[in-house]
Structure of TENP protein:
Amino acid sequence: LSILLSLLVPAHTIRSPDCGGILTPSGLSYRKSGPRISRASVLVPQHLHFCSSRNQINSVKVTELSLSLISDTGLRLSTDVDLSITPAPSSTKVMRLSILADLHVEMNPEGNLELVTSACKPTVEEMQSTEEVERLTPHKSSSSDADKEINVDKICLEVSKLLLLPNEQLLSLTAQFPVTPSCQVQYLPLAAPMFSEQGITISLQTTFQVAGMAIPLPVSPVPFSMPETATSSPSHLTLAFSEHFYTSLFFALETAGAFNMTILVSRASKEGWLLCPEITPLPRQMGSLFQEDLPVVLQAVFRSSPQVVLEEGKAALKLFLTVHVGAGSPAFQSFVSVNVDMSAGLLLSVGDTRMMISAAAIEDIELSLAASDVGPMPAALLEELFLPTIREEVPAQLNVVLSEGVFLPHISSFTYTDVNVVIHKDYVLIPCNLELRARTG
């Protein structure tokens, strides 16, 4: 029975985070100058259904809209809305509607994050009316009078409707993003976010799909947890990525066949290898294999998964390749196989919502003979024949695959600005600011 039950346990119960982010108090209070409040003034009327049937809303002005952290609990939404209401043909009243609502984030059964209200307290205050234009000082309406103008009981129901747009945007966090035409990346939250003085911390696990199928990733040797950031951080958001995240990315690309490489070198003929006619005895040995001129190509395959190593201020990619040297078209015939162990520096940056990754110059490379149909080949000869081509072509072809970048976890309406990429031992921190994209249509 225990074996059967273990088979029924969903795979996600053993998930562990490999990246995440901390939305700081600065990010929570971020607002773009001007349009944020005016846009809220447009959105709010779409959900205002709490006035009595005999009243008409003439205008809505959101004068205050803010979010604040409540440690270990969630958020507090504070909203002040001025409503111009016509209760009768001859009069107009301006009512100040103030709402304090406590919010928290839950994980719904589909595994998506959802913002919900946990408490709500509305108050109504009459500011002025056409009959008392000269009296501009606000005064409290009696609760019975306020109820005649605004149905207070319905207000909190309408507040939950105002969360529809934020929840739609939260859904975009778990979208599948393309890495290559056959490989997609997805960031899945492992639990509801944690709220503290630092901000809102969310832990994510990266999954990859190749040709529409989720692939099993290497097991992380070290559990990852979000590193602490300074409470006074001026950045809106700090993203963090473990060393295992980058190794998983390269593993997924390798599994998708994105790094399969075919490199044209020269031509082989009965007279020898035209690239290096002065080198003997290889040209005579190779020439005996061919009856006509054929293209000489290198086909590189991984004999072990790539590894990414993060040190302070430095990222390196370790590759373990077997390069098959051969000739022939259309049938490839390998006559020499060379094991290549190499290390290249990685450059990391961020543009918009993508992480840009590129392989820099080769830092270390070692060649050894794996198999040969043309007799023994000393290490010096291997290096003279293959090293310049491998050193130049392998990073170049890696960078073609990586040139589009990799989407970072993000919400659809925001982009990242003022980005700083800081590489530490075992993880990368990306402090950045948020910028609200202009909506069209």
